[in-house]
Amino acid sequence: LGHGRLIIGKGEWAPTNTEFPDRETRYGNVSGAYSFACQVAEVEVDPETGQVKVLKVTLGDDCGQVINLLGAEGQAEGSATMGIGHALMEEILFGDNGQIMNPSSLEYKIPTARDVVDFALLEVGRPDPVGPYGAKEIGEGLLISTVPAVVNAIYDAIGVRINDLPVTPEKILEALEKGKRRKRS
Predict the structure, then answer these.
(1) Residue 22 CB burial class (10 angstroms; 0-12, 13-18, ≥19)
(2) How would you classify residue 178: left for phi > 0, otherwise alpha for psi between -120 and 50, otherwise beta?
(3) Which residues is 58 bridged to in the sheet?
(4) CA dist., res. 129 & res. 114, Å (int)
(5) Are 37 and 24 in contact (CB under 8 A)?
(6) How high is the pLDDT of residue 161?
(7) Which of 27, 39, 71, 72 is the least buried, fewest Cβ under 10 Å from its Cβ?
(8) Average pLDDT in the chain
(9) What is the mean pLDDT of residues 135-149?
């Protein structure tokens, strides 16, 4: 160190507690460790335009022993950002015969750096007895809880539930209008 030399290491790990699913019962254990997560999203919804702005996402994740905090935070933020895209932007349009109707990738909206929000990551796990150095995964598994966190925050903000993804301004305005009609009748 200090002499311009780079330290490089390489390693691998294979879980000892996995088993392929049985052909008949289909039971097995395909992962060395399972992580669990939950999220809370804070949003603002403009009832005049239907625009949603995600303000903050708080992620609680049982990822075992955190080995690289910056890497864990990056994985969590990336997964939650993908979840925000799934909840609010990403949509493949299909024609009657199943053909994709999005003219190109330019029309398939995904989050960009401008869409990244304020994140707070709470590592709530304990070292895992099987995982390498007590670690578990922290990555795409977090994506699962982002969508309901965002959709439920929208419901909390405007009082109407949107069940069709992505939640677009048009869908919000339509749901608000239906809600007004129900109240009048």
Answers:
(1) exposed
(2) alpha
(3) 40, 120
(4) 39
(5) no
(6) 94
(7) 27
(8) 90
(9) 89
pLDDT band at 12 (very low <50, low <70, confident <90, very high): confident
Q: For residue 51, is pLDDT > 90?
A: yes
Query: Both tokens of residue 97?
Result: 């015969």
pLDDT digits (tens, 9 = 90+) for 60-99: 999 899 988 899 999 999 999 999 999 999 998 899 999 9
Contact present, 83 and 110 (Cβ < 8 Å): no
Read off the tokens for 129. Answer: 């007895």
Q: Strand, coil or helix: what is 152?
A: helix
Q: Residue 2: is its pLDDT beyond 80?
A: no
What distance, in Å, lies between the first and last C-alpha atoms of the chain?
76
The whole-angstrom separation of Cα 124 and Cα 179 is 39
Question: Tokens 């993908």 label which residue?
Answer: 82
Residues 37, 141: contact at Cβ < 8 Å?
A: yes
166: preceding bond cis by omega (within 30 degrees): yes
Radius of gyration in angstroms for the set of CA atoms belonging to the chain, rounded to a whole number: 21
Is 123 noted as a catalytic residue in this protein?
A: no
The active-site residue, picked from 140, 170, 174, 177, is 140
